[in-house]
Amino acid sequence: MEFLDFQHDPAAEKLVAEVYAAPPMAYIHSFGCQQNVSDGERIKGVLCDIGYGLCDRPEDADLILYNTCAVREHAEQRVFGNVGALKALKEKKPGLIIGLCGCMANQQHIVDKLRKSYPYVDLVFGVDGIDTLPQLLSQKLEGKKRILLAPAQRPVIVEHIPVRRESDFRAWLPIMYGCDNFCTYCIVPYVRGREKSRRPADILAEFKGLVAAGYKEITLLGQNVNSYGKGLEEGMDFSDLLHLLCTVPGDYRVRFMTSHPKDASRKLIDTIAAEPHLCKHLHLPVQSGSDRLLAAMNRHYNVEQYLALIDYARQRVPGITFSSDIIVGFPGETEEDFAATLALVKTVGYMQLFTFIYSKREGTKAALLPDPTPRKEKTDRMQRLLDTQDAIAIEKTAELVGKTVRVLVEGYGREEGTLSGRLDNNLTVEFLADESKIGSYAEIELTGARATVLLGQCKEA
Ligand code: 5AD
Ligand code: SF4
After folding, report:
1. Ligand 1 pocket by C-beta < 6 Å: which residues?
2. 267-320 pLDDT, tens per residue?
3. Site residues for ligand 2, CB cut-off 6 Å
4. Residue range 158-207, pLDDT digits in tens
5. Atom of ligand 1 nearest to the CA of 360
6. pLDDT, tens only, 1-12
7. Which ligand is closest to the CA of 286, given by its number?
8. pTM of the model
9. How many CB atoms lie within 10 A of CB 109?
10. CB distance 232 to 199 below 8 Å
């Protein structure tokens, strides 16, 4: 693995200033997961570094970039819908540059489709191309017609890419990129490439900078944070990294995602128990409660091992809560497999579930499996899963009423005058308080619940 430093491109900055009378505006929209949102923040940083301003509406933009997601077909369709809608805008404003980047751009068949059917898309580059954006834009501004890069992954990590964060109190901090797991349904390893970890010193420096800038919640990101450190000289694992970061003094909390159950170690649980900065919450995607399907998904754990980990966490970290991802309707899922998933969901008692109907991804192993279950059957199962989880979540939320908790105040609530804050366990609470509290911590007494949203009273309001 090679580590590079981002280089400011003065020639690109000069060219931008020459081409546009006033600073040009860029509209960047990121679809999909937090990793993509985090990439989007770096794309914005790189653009500002060469003189672009940022705008909130495509109509005001000189450059539109869609930072795309490929994890499910629906996400891709949405992007094509959005790109299609830009045709009229481009006709009105021929100088407009339209680009597409992120996970979709790392699939050859998508690049081919864009080349053929979307002639007004000027620029396509993949997830590893963010630092090269100034040079790509320079070529475009110098008159090159279209720049559609073929999917490629670079075995490099570029540090110190400028970043324009969306919040000034919650930050995304990528600690690694890519994925080596090849779960059979998942496109991520193909589009984001092999796993690569940032150096601990680089992560620590960015983390310290965030704490010094007053960030109150820092979420460490990786497709599988529990395998952090593979191949690094430092010989550090994810728990070691957490301990290192938590030595930074300050008033902040740390979250991380995603944890793969096969690599979530007891050492990690012990670390959560030991470090007060870490949220007592674990997002631990199980995907299915059927051992047969877990094997077909190439997940490398079974239900017994998964539940043993949950048990250990509950013993070591009193009050810890869990959330999970579940795929409904994986090829060949039987009613019996699905019943096992429902049983597991009830046994664990998740605070929150993210549920997805299986989506066939070309190029993955599961795409080759027969999938005879009718769509209607899959949507019925999904509804049963949602109903089961709703009942659990309502019960779990109600159990919290009466407690006093520390929340990070994130914004406005749904009712006039209320604010909304988030607990350690990711649940939301709404309460009356002055808006100056947004971005800081507050002690909230939980007084009631409306389904899974808590209601509370601010102790110091
Ligand atoms: N179909 C449905 N859900 C998927 N996920 C990943 N790939 C697919 C797919 N092909 C889900 C998994 C993963 C989450 C981020 O997205 O549950 O944990
Ligand atoms: Fe996809 Fe599995 Fe990697 Fe997660 S761990 S990104 S589900 S291959």
Report:
1. 71-72, 185-186, 285, 287, 325, 327, 356, 358-359, 361
2. 999 999 999 999 999 999 999 999 999 999 999 999 999 999 999 999 999 999
3. 179, 181-183, 186, 188-189, 223-224, 260
4. 999 999 999 999 999 999 999 999 999 999 999 999 999 999 999 999 99
5. 10
6. 899 999 999 999
7. 1
8. 0.96
9. 11
10. yes
Q: Would you state the structure tokens that stand for residue 293, as one six-digit string?
A: 């399907």
Report the amino acid identity of residue 368: L
Tokens 């109903």 appear where?
A: 387
The structure tokens listed for 355 are 């549920």
Nearest of 151, 144, 92, 91 to residue 122 by alpha carbon: 144
